[in-house]
Amino acid sequence: MAIDRASLIPALKNVATRLRIDSLRATTEAGSGHPTSCFSAAEIVAALFFAEMRFDPKDPHNPDADRFILSKGHAAPVLYAAWAEAGAFDRDELLKLRTIGSDLEGHPTPRLPFVDVATGSLGQGICAGIGCALNARRIKSDYRTYVLLGDGESAEGSVWEAANVGAADRLDNLCGLTDVNGLGQSRPTMWQHDMEQFARRWRAFGWHAIVIDGHDLYAVLDALADARATKGQPTMILARTIKGKGVSFVEGKDGWHGKAFKKGEEADRALGELEKQFVPAPAGVNLAQQIPKPAVAARAAVPKPVAPPAYKMGDHVATREAYGTAIAKLAEADPRVCALDADVKNSTFSDRFEKVAPDRFYQNFIAEQVMIGASMGLAARGAIPFPSTFACFLSRAYDFIRMAAISNVGIKMAGSHAGVSIGEDGPSQMALEDLAMCRAEPNIAVLYPCDGVSAERLVAAAASHPGPVYIRTSRPKTPVIYSNDETFPIGGLKVLREAPGDVATIVGAGITVFEALAAYDRLKADGHTVRVIDLYSLQPIDRDSLVRAGRATGGHLITVEDHYPGGGIGDAVAAAVAEAGMTVHRLAVREIPRSGKADELLDRYGISASHIVEAVRAVTTGKPVGAVH
Amino acid sequence: MAIDRASLIPALKNVATRLRIDSLRATTEAGSGHPTSCFSAAEIVAALFFAEMRFDPKDPHNPDADRFILSKGHAAPVLYAAWAEAGAFDRDELLKLRTIGSDLEGHPTPRLPFVDVATGSLGQGICAGIGCALNARRIKSDYRTYVLLGDGESAEGSVWEAANVGAADRLDNLCGLTDVNGLGQSRPTMWQHDMEQFARRWRAFGWHAIVIDGHDLYAVLDALADARATKGQPTMILARTIKGKGVSFVEGKDGWHGKAFKKGEEADRALGELEKQFVPAPAGVNLAQQIPKPAVAARAAVPKPVAPPAYKMGDHVATREAYGTAIAKLAEADPRVCALDADVKNSTFSDRFEKVAPDRFYQNFIAEQVMIGASMGLAARGAIPFPSTFACFLSRAYDFIRMAAISNVGIKMAGSHAGVSIGEDGPSQMALEDLAMCRAEPNIAVLYPCDGVSAERLVAAAASHPGPVYIRTSRPKTPVIYSNDETFPIGGLKVLREAPGDVATIVGAGITVFEALAAYDRLKADGHTVRVIDLYSLQPIDRDSLVRAGRATGGHLITVEDHYPGGGIGDAVAAAVAEAGMTVHRLAVREIPRSGKADELLDRYGISASHIVEAVRAVTTGKPVGAVH
Fold it and tell me: Residues A109, A71: contact at Cβ < 8 Å?
């Protein structure tokens, strides 16, 4: 910045005033929103956008542009106002805030080109910031990542997961700013304006913490410079602010969270106060025009072909192990691919990735929320992150997965140890709702390989799929049933057994494919054949093939899944064939399971080969199927 | 304790050795488990059970008994060994560890009477401990709550949510102990044996932190006494330990997590080493017999009848508001009922409970995991907790909800602001997967009232239901359609419109009931009638009534839900009627929605009255239904 502070400060002050005015106008026009949460952050945002960050308002995706994440997403209007002020779009657009025709939504989403990840679920932006900062390291860029948090959201555990990881990874290219306005939604925050409560926490977690007056632009600029100069650790700027700052009758007042000023007298009075706050500024200073722009540095990632699977038919390999092999191959083929772990790399086999590409392997320790949040930030910046843990523990990050779906970022989650087939560890370690969890999000591809070949192929397919993906892997070893050159397009399925007189179609996936094949053998010995389908892609789902199989087998479709019935394979297949007028008989785990041997559990909970045989007999003879409700 | 330390210490040391031996034997017999994680905690557990805690091994549920929660659930064998040592059951049972016929599962579950909540998903036990400690305050008991954490799990954000709440609530009846053995599952932990890293974090969060050598029984006893004497804040004892302590060839070695000693030479060698560690102990000291027992103090909670709803037909009231009214009435009727908030009490209307019973209203600030975790602890101790927040933010606590289901504890969750009908705030604030999330757990009752009367009745029904419950409420005001004396049993439904010639059955719930009623009116104006069902109980579901309605209306069932299609109302109804050979046409939100007015969004995403009318016409004329896949 070539501007001296004496000129800069009044110009920034006027920007802050305009941000307040724009936030007020937009929310008043919308009739809802959070103007007072914008007011407390106005100086911080003004300083960041117009005296600190390097970016091009017309090219927000530039790989070397500094990142700004509004973790306190409810202050969206001040974010939009800042981008308008910077020249990204016409200021008049701001008045379309929250209307159905505008991308200026109530909380930011990546429908806007300058938003990396959707925010509005608190405590997530700082996790995504970790990912953005790691990405800078990955692409060897000196861009910096700034995250604006609310004080209230500092109660979210995910913030402290990010604090640990940020310090452990020495992310000095990451700078958080907490807008400590002291007021939450429904009451004063836990620590209100006791700044020491914040400072001692961040320092204890290994961050450089700076306490300032968040309305003092000199202090904000100094703190940002201090952060930039700090090496080896991330910085958290703790800014004491006043909620509603600038409008006397709401300043520091409880009961004004999430309330727009009413059109007419109330809004006019507030606007009148704000308009008086413009100060004389030196002529010729146009901060928007002086934003430093990143170089236009295209980074062409040229992925090499991924090495194909190399199994022998009948080899015994767990899909979780094949997953590890596959991501290690991807690591060698594509520099965009990363892997993230939560201290289970030796169980998920992601340690194979670490051996090949340790610099793109990010350890989060036992902290699944930041693992997924960081993946969101990485994916938003062009990486292809594979976060993995036990499938059940992905539920720890469901709110992040939900926001990843809203963001439509290409995170490739893998969950191992699915279902009762893990055996003795018991229900706390068994994922029995993970398919439901991921399938509920309409844009997450849900994949479930049954053998080594399909696992490797689906991992590669996930990497080149544009959106979020979930891959479910299993603990036990299973035989390889596909040849190495078999392909597995997302949205497909495999018909493994098929004959003209098939009496029913069994749809399995993962471990239950082998129960279905065993049932096939037993039924065949009795003179009956069934169709057997490996539904390796649960979402999108190959409806036409399912309908065709159902029609060819007397309308008898039986699903079998190592999962609870709600929202899993049975529901997915039933939804797919519903319009064809077919119903589905579902074998699934219908109660909370317990510890035991895998085979015992598959049988006890009604999803073993013998239960499939029984179900086939029942549906083909018209008798009610006992295990099905 | 009447025993002097000179006698106590050698006796405790021998208990610790027996706990190690029992843990080894049990895991070796099982062929799996975590003996080295038990070894590091042996002195801590010995001291707690046999020189600190007040409990009756034969009556673990005594309301005044001290609580012990094994947050590091993988050390289950040492927990089981301690209860066996205390006389709760025969020591021989330990050798049935992890077998299908035994309740001594791989990780603890409340199938065992001495386990309050299932653990094994890390970072949760300390949250449940908050609930147990709050419960002591509720019932005016001086029992204390002890939680044993692992060092690895201290990376979980939920631990720091609990840290904040424990300090804010000044829970000096809560004592955590962290077994800092330095080794995680796949590698050394983030801070290994740097005890200061732990101490400064806990102190920053407002806890009394004590660093000790966790194998020094004197130090453990002193720290426990110190914790007991500490007033106004909870204590965290940070115990430096050695993983595998007691067996030379595994002590402090990486690569031994979750590995049992192999039967034969390996186990024998380890056992031989342990057996040499018995020390001469004074005769006549039997620690198990000297455990101080709580008084048998029955506390009869005599709930009064809950005041019935008091609306006028046609009144406009949001179900979230009726929820607030209902829990406030419950607060007055039943001293077991509590409410928990995450700083949205003015939106969920749980502030009405706070006004009536501030001492049973627990504020967690913006920290949903500890809110649900604390509810688990409260419910396990006889309280009836109603935690509530925006429905979408319950996904933040899904792993806790999953563990609450495994624990089968009676937490009564309420999620407000469901679906696109919240309007302008946008997708981050819209719950569109909450029904799938809760319905996936087979033992969670999923309730969804549409008006004020049903909301109040279902809240009361939830309170008296024995297991976990989820209640979904809506943001917009809806007309009261039920009379105040209408009853709503869990597992039922209401047929709102019914005539002999009905051409189809529309199944709605919550906000879509009114879209269905509007569709009814339009269709009736055209000379057609449809059956309209309010499916207020999604799980359990009234299958018979659905089948009856389907059969009476030409097999045409149409569901309409303010929710994504996967795992929601459509899937639930389809599963219910599957065995009757009926299929279901589903209207649901099929893409990531955006901000807008509620009515605009209901229409844009295909769940408004006009879409229902279209769907009825399509299914009854046999044309494909456009909005249905």
Answer: no
**Which amino acid would we find at residue B472?**
R
Of how many residues is chain A composed?
Answer: 629
> Which letter, b or e, does each residue of B476-504 get, where b requires 16 or more Cβ atoms within 10 Å of its Cβ?
bebebbbeeeeebebbbbbebbeeeebbb
Residue A524 to residue A502: CA distance in whole angstroms: 10
Q: Do B583 and A585 touch (CB under 8 A)?
A: no
**Who among A73, A365, A583 is closest to B428 (CB)?**
A73
Q: Return the pLDDT at B344.
A: 96
Pairing of strands B531-534, B494-497: antiparallel
> Annotated active-site positions of B, please?
368
Chain A residues closer than 8 Å to B238 by CB: none
Question: Pick from A398, A429, A584: which is nearest to B437 by CB?
Answer: A398
Peptide bond into A540 cis (omega under 30): yes
Q: Is the pLDDT of residue B179 over 50?
A: yes
Nearest to A2 by CA among A277, A423, A312, A287: A287
* Distance from the B99 Cα atom to the nearest Cα atom in chain A, whole angstroms: 5
CB A42, CB A211: distance < 8 Å: no
3-state SS, residue A379: helix
Which residue has 């085979």 as its token pair?
A599
Question: By C-alpha distance, which of B295, B2, B288 is closest to B142?
Answer: B295
Residue B343's nearest CA partner among B333, B357, B354 is: B354
How many Cβ contacts (< 8 angstroms) between chains A and B?
379
Place of tokens 């006890």: A604
Quick: pLDDT tens for B124-165: 999 999 999 999 999 999 999 999 999 999 999 999 999 999
Residue B629 confidence (pLDDT): 34
% helix, strand, coil for chain A, step of 5: 45, 15, 45
A236 three-class SS: strand
Q: Which of A190, A363, A396 has the CB atom closest to B164's CB atom?
A: A190
Report the chain B residue with the minimal C-alpha distance to residue A102. B595
Average pLDDT, chain B: 96
- The Cα–Cα gap between A159 and A311 comes to 43
Contact between A69 and A125 under an 8 Å Cβ cutoff? The reply is yes
Given the residues A368, A433, A456, A561, select the one marked as catalytic.
A368
Q: How confident is the model at residue A620 (pLDDT cuts 50, 70, 90)?
A: confident
- From start to end of A473-616, where are the E strands? 477-479, 494-497, 505-508, 531-534, 537-539, 557-560, 584-587
Contact A438, A446 (CB under 8 A): yes
Structural Rg of chain A based on CA atoms: 28
Q: Among B161, B539, B592, whose Cβ lies nearest the Cβ of A157?
A: B161
Tracing tokens 């309007």 back to the chain, one arrives at: B423
Task: Check A592 against B443: CB less than 8 A apart.
Answer: yes
Buried b (16+ CB within 10 A) or exposed e, A266-279: bbeebbebbeeeee
Model-level pTM? 0.98
Residue A318 pairs with which residues in a beta bridge? Answer: A477
pLDDT range class, residue B2, cuts 50, 70, 90: low
Tokens of B436: 């799938």
Q: Any residues with CB less than 8 A from the CB of B358 and at least 6 apart, and which? A: none
Chain A residues with CB inside 8 Å of B436's CB? Answer: 436-437, 439-440, 566-567
Strand intervals (E) in A56-131: 67-70
On chain B, the residues whose CB falls within 8 A of the CB of A164 are: 155, 190
A164/B543 CB distance under 8 A: no
DSSP strand E in A498-560: where? 505-508, 531-534, 537-539, 557-560
pLDDT(A239) > 70: yes
The span from the CA of B533 to the CA of B526, in Å, is 20
User: What is the distance in angstroms between the Cα of B6 and the nearest Cα belonging to chain A?
Assistant: 39
Amino acid at A15: V
